[in-house]
Amino acid sequence: MKRRVVLPWLASLVLPLHVTADPAVDPFAIRVTNEQELRILLSRPAAKLGEARVLEGKFRQSRHLREIPKPLVAQGDFSFVRDLGIRWHTRQPFDSVVVLTASGLAQSDDGGLVQRVSADEQPAIRLITRIFMALFTLDTQSLARDFDLHTGVPGAEANRWVIGLRPRAKAIASVFRDATITGRDDVEQVVLTDAQGDRTVIDLSAITYSGDPPGADLRALFALPRS
């Protein structure tokens, strides 16, 4: 039986420290009308992200489905390369690699057969790649083109921030209903709620930054063998 990748909302187009957002905080409490204010709020993490060419770290993803009482949990490593895309290597509960770039999506399970979907076949992949790249780099100018931006007051904990996004275009709204990003010095958590109300929580940790261009070894990870 073929196993589905544990980044379900990405696949449907064919997603240590465990940070959980404070449920008392409403990320949509305040509509952002001045993008400059948001840039000031995010100035610390954005400064690091703006200089980074490569981000690497660990992820823990929980998929909350309405028809299943317990969340589906997966964890592994991710690599973000500004000029290439994003690579998710799920290590538990099984081994799977998903590479998302502007040219398409590729998936390999247990190092076996590679499934590919080109952006020419599914133009939405280009949109999803652009959104994810903007999420990872806190590119508010890019996000503001596709979303209404909101923020909340994350309680008494200093230096924490939370951003809420609601899509403007029907094409995006058909994939997910809203998203939230939470963090301090880094992007620590992304929560995606799809059009059916199912929720995907992605916690990021142990993030490292590099301003150097990606080396040959890292570039090779984005070149999955052809099926």
Structure description:
There is one protein chain. Helix 4 (124-137) runs antiparallel to helix 5. With 227 residues, the chain is an alpha+beta fold. Helix content is 22%, strand content 39%. The longest helix has 14 residues, at 124-137.
Number of strands: 12
Uncertain segments: 1-9, 11-21
> Tell me, what is the CATH class?
Mainly Beta
The CATH superfamily is identified as Lipoprotein localisation LolA/LolB/LppX
What share of residues is helical?
Answer: 10-25%
Structural class: alpha+beta
| Radius of gyration, whole Å | 17 Å
Number of helices: 7
Quickly count the domains. Answer: 1
Distance between the first and last residues' Cα: 18 Å
Query: In percent terms, what proportion of residues is strand?
Result: 35-45%
Helices and strands, in N-to-C order? HEHHEEEEEEHHEEHEEEH
Q: Could you report the average pLDDT, rounded to the nearest whole number?
A: 80
What characteristic shape results from the CA principal axes? globular
Let me know the largest β-sheet. Answer: 12 strands, antiparallel
Per CATH, the architecture is Clam
What is the strand arrangement across the widest sheet? 1-8-9-10-11-12-2-3-4-5-6-7
CATH topology: outer membrane lipoprotein receptor (LolB), chain A
